[in-house]
Automatic annotation (TrEMBL):
Organism lineage: Bacteria, Pseudomonadati, Pseudomonadota, Gammaproteobacteria, Pseudomonadales
Family: Belongs to the CitG/MdcB family.
HAMAP family: MdcB
Protein name in UniProt: Probable 2-(5''-triphosphoribosyl)-3'-dephosphocoenzyme-A synthase
Top-rank taxon, per record: Bacteria
PANTHER family: 2-(5''-TRIPHOSPHORIBOSYL)-3'-DEPHOSPHOCOENZYME-A SYNTHASE (PTHR30201:SF2), TRIPHOSPHORIBOSYL-DEPHOSPHO-COA SYNTHASE (PTHR30201)
Annotated EC: 2.4.2.52
Native species: Ectopseudomonas toyotomiensis
Pfam families, per database record: CitG
Amino acid sequence: MNALTAIQPKLSLGDWLADLAVDALIDEADLSPKPGLVDRRGSGAHTDLHLGLMHASALALWPSFKAMAEAAQQRGEIALQLREDVGRIGREGEQEMLRVTGGVNTHRGAIWALGLLSTAAALDVNMLAPEQVALRAARLALLNDRAAPVTGDSHGAQVCRLYGVHGAREEAQLGFPAVIQQALPQLARSRAAGAGEQNARLDALLAIMTQLADTCVLYRAGMAGLTCMQSGARAVLAAGGCASLDGRRLLRDLERDMLRLRASPGGAADLLAATLFLDRLQHGLPAQLGSH
Ligand SMILES: CC(C)(COP(=O)(O)OP(=O)(O)OC[C@H]1O[C@@H](n2cnc3c(N)ncnc32)[C@H](O)[C@@H]1O)[C@@H](O)C(=O)NCCC(=O)NCCS
Ligand SMILES: Nc1ncnc2c1ncn2[C@@H]1O[C@H](COP(=O)(O)OP(=O)(O)OP(=O)(O)O)[C@@H](O)[C@H]1O
């Protein structure tokens, strides 16, 4: 041990996972140019959201992610008690988000996805590969939280009924296929091709958009909006992705079309944050993680 390591503060597992989750949210918000979404350039298709609000909301969620990880450490297994702990902490997180944003939904879907993944990661730090963490999160999401309010009138629930698609709940229950099968492989391919980190992340977002039934898009722009999102994202990737000139031109076309339809792929954005979280997590625990 040298003088530097001796004075390094101990980091708990909950601290570390909450840091990763908040970093993922901030990196997602900052990533630009994202079609229809809030980014460094502006508010996309939103009138009530802006980058400062996304940052403030992300930071306000840190204690919730930490509390979910700690609940996982205390319970130690995938069981109804843990599912209900996490449900309660998630609902409290939503309340805190709404307090900080003055009632605007900045991160509802992200609390759900990253909350489950933080919990799943804390359950077994020896198995942090993306598929392993996503599988544990899915098993947790499949448990029925008895305290969850049965409303059925959320925007997501309404369009799931109307169009017969799977929303945020099912995406988690299936083990985040958009992240595991689309985004992470695309992120790796674009990095390997030398796209640069920002372009590789944009390509990962587009890979999610090619397939996802994003209920944010369906609610605002119907099936026409969803088709526009999926086919436009496919066209950008087929042209060589965001690092290519043709891909950039098609990305601009996609953005123009989505703004015209007021369509914003908020669900895809949440899953990009989940992708960035799992991507970092797989590098394993940091050295200064003390006993937890
Ligand atoms: C399951 C959740 C996401 C609610 O889903 P629902 O579709 O009913 O709600 P809503 O329309 O508000 O959408 C949630 C968000 O999910 C994201 N999303 C949209 N489509 C998708 C998709 N296909 N896949 C993943 N995420 C998506 C978007 O950001 C969207 O805003 C969750 O928030 C929940 O159960 N809330 C109830 C309170 C609770 O128990 N919270 C604890 C969570 S740990
Ligand atoms: N960079 C981003 N820009 C916009 N939305 C994002 C971004 N990142 C994540 N999201 C997600 O998008 C969702 C916000 O979408 P939306 O504004 O459609 O929700 P809403 O308030 O339910 O609907 P509406 O605004 O259409 O009435 C949040 O749940 C959030 O998790």
